[in-house]
Amino acid sequence: MPEPAGRPAAVALLGGGVIGSGWAARFLLNGVDVRLYDPDPEAERTLAGVLENARRAYRRLTLAPLPAEGRLVIAGSPEAAVEGADLVQESAPEREPLKRELLARAGDAAPADAVIASSTSGLLPSRLQEGVRHPERVVVGHPFNPVYLLPLVEVCGGAGTGAAAVDRAAAAYRAVGMRPLVVRREIDGFVADRLMEALWREALWLVADDVATVDEIDDAIRFGAGLRWAFMGTFLTYRIAGGSAGMRHFMAQFGPALRWPWTKLTDVPELTDELVGKLVAQSDAQAGGRSTRELERLRDDCLVAVLQGLRSQDYAAGALLADYERSLFRADGRPAADGGPSEAPLRLHRLRVPAEWMDYNGHAHESRYLQAFGDATDALLRRVGVDEAYLAAGGSYYTVETHLSHLREAAAGDVLEVSTQLLGHDAKRLHLFHRLTREDGVEVATAEQMLVHVDTAQGRAAPAGPEVLGRVAELAAAHAALPPPERAGRRIALPS
């Protein structure tokens, strides 16, 4: 199975708090082996909770087949963790002496060609790499919480960092679905945190001066600019605000306002007990009694919804998600033997029913059966050559008719397999029959489908490419001797 370019085979994580556990989830779910060190006896419990959330989020995020989960090992020391690692990711608390000690110990024990990265949100890499053996391989790789969902990672080198280390770190992050932002020169706080810090200062003043509550300030973001920021950022937003004249007009109209004395960006309110108490009380009220785990899952579900919405537009983080899914499908490309002998119905899709598929009856919702059959159809199309290159060239099959038969219930945790038989074909059409079977052999559902080949540039039916048609013909010849499925060709009708 091909691996994404740059993906490390093994990663060492130094620190297993919220950020370190998020890194662990990101790498493990992308098939990377992880060795984690954290002296905190609660680290494994923290990791287990974050990993549970990440698995849940990824089931909602994408239908693309994830690789086999990486192997997790809890190491007893930094030296044991970094043994054999391609990438070392330090995520200790934001205390420079602690980080420097861990990085130095990692540098002494890790392979000489391992990239060593710190998750610091603001410490300068030039200081962190002091005392590290081979400092040219030390970079900052600053992620954002939750690491397993938010794709941004700021990559910054120090005075002694080689360009190769920056490139390798960026490639490693990119291979697990992230968007590396290479910071051009080191600066305290890098890019994103400096922007967030400016907003945070103003927010604190608004609370301190009783202008707004924490909930009202968050409303100002989530019902306003925050919705735009998810796909337009800051500068594109203001360019559009300038109308047809663009950024020049916007700056001429609103630029002078930057000198008005209403901002407090250069000052910070004193964090008195009174102000901290006010923040805590309002924040607790805002949470509405929900636990941190509940809030994390709400956050993840909302992020998934935003990412999928952006994916439908193939823009910003949605375009990155689409690229990531395509890389998963490429990595899932399997030889013909993996689906079973061509002379038998193909076994191209296998799944375990997740709990979130359940409806009010405690069984899998009927829409999920169609999802399983659709995934099997996609697997068949990849087998006959409808891959990323073929789609990019303007060819695809569209499902135009489906007949589902629900025979048994599926429950959470059931292992299901779809077998697929090609009933017929011509230059433009595929006639398929799927069976969905439980691990115990019980048939749960069937689906009969007609697919039409489409020229996507023209938006109309067209013959498939000769290479695809050749593979379809080979499969049709292999399936010609199979008995027709009993439920094929059925129609819905009351008994006469």
Structure description:
Mean pLDDT is 92; it is low at 334-338. The protein is globular and about 80 Å long. The protein has helices at 18-28, 43-61, 78-82, 96-109, 125-128, 163-174, 192-208, 214-232, 235-241, 246-254, 273-287, 292-312, 317-331, 366-383, 388-392, 466-479; strands spanning 10-14, 33-37, 72-75, 87-90, 115-118, 138-142, 152-157, 179-182, 346-352, 395-406, 415-425, 429-438, 443-455, 460-461. It starts with 9 loop residues before the first strand and ends in a 17-residue tail after the last helix. The strands form two sheets. Strands 3-2-1-4-5-6-7-8 form an eight-stranded mixed sheet, sandwiched between helices. By secondary structure, it is an alpha/beta fold. It folds into three domains: 10-190, Rossmann fold (3-Layer(aba) Sandwich); 193-289, N-(1-d-carboxylethyl)-l-norvaline Dehydrogenase, domain 2; 337-479, Thiol Ester Dehydrase, Chain A, CATH 3.10.129. 41% of the residues lie in helices and 19% in strands. It is built from 16 helices and 14 strands. The longest helix is centred in the middle third of the chain and has 21 residues, at 292-312.
Topology:
Elements: E1 10-14, H1 18-28, E2 33-37, H2 43-61, E3 72-75, H3 78-82, E4 87-90, H4 96-109, E5 115-118, H5 125-128, E6 138-142, E7 152-157, H6 163-174, E8 179-182, H7 192-208, H8 214-232, H9 235-241, H10 246-254, H11 273-287, H12 292-312, H13 317-331, E9 346-352, H14 366-383, H15 388-392, E10 395-406, E11 415-425, E12 429-438, E13 443-455, E14 460-461, H16 466-479
Helix pairs in contact: 1-2, 2-12, 9-10, 12-13
